[in-house]
Design brief:
By secondary structure, the protein is mainly alpha-helical. The chain has one domain: Up-down Bundle (Growth Hormone, Chain: A). It is 79% helix and 0% strand. It has 10 helices and no strands. Helix 4 runs parallel beside helix 9 and helix 7 packs antiparallel against helix 8. The longest helix has 35 residues.
Length: 283
Amino acid sequence: FPISQRGRVMGFMQMGFGASQVLGIPISLYFANEWGWQSPFLMIVGLSTIILLIIIVKLQPLIKHLDNQNEHSALIHLWRTIANRNYRIGFLATAFLSLGGFMMMPWGSAFAINNLHVTPHQLPILFMVAGISTLIIMPIIGKFSDRIDKFKLFTIASICMMVIVIIYTNLTPVPFWIILVINVIMMIGVMSRMVPSSALASALPEMHDRGAFMSINSSLQQIAGGVAAAIGGMIVVQKDNFSPIEHYDTLGYVIVAITIVCIFLVHRVSKLVKLNVNASQVQ
């Protein structure tokens, strides 16, 4: 897809995260309560098998990039991709985005139940409503991403996210509908950053480097997610399973600081993408 349509495509792709909350989390909680904790994992295996068969039968193979192959080995190609200074800026942006995004997730349920007094029966509703909101908003954000500057959209979403994260991490017990609204706005802010940033990151590498770039990028997302959980675990404290989460507000301030760094890095990526687009138009 050309860069002018990539935001819309990424918007639909990010809908998968919303769908996972609408369907995955509530259904998994139901399965676990009815048939034991192993049943959601068996469901994942079954769904993955079905999806694999659909991919094999329906999707066309991507072979256009094979015309641009070089004579280097895969490891050398991977190393040269990492050594590219412009690509490293994209990798850093991805890492910091994942740090900020994953840092709150492991303690979201515990904070909602123990600090905000959300009941276990209300928790699936909280996830489901947030997921439905992302299903609705992601295609809209994708279209906006193609119509206005992607970095501007990313900055607006980041500022909204920073404000709502500070509010949420300092929240005390309030009516459930208020928690629901704040959680929806926070989820929209988090996911709205992903659409323009993913579109920009996918436009950064050259065609012959795109596979290596995206594989490294995906690996960094997973690594950064683990690092984020570890850092969060060193910040928050819970004395026992029923005690409130402590220092969750500190976690919010750390996420704000990381988000500010993200804005700077995505700005650099945006400038590099514009230079690449201008150079290709001249050629």
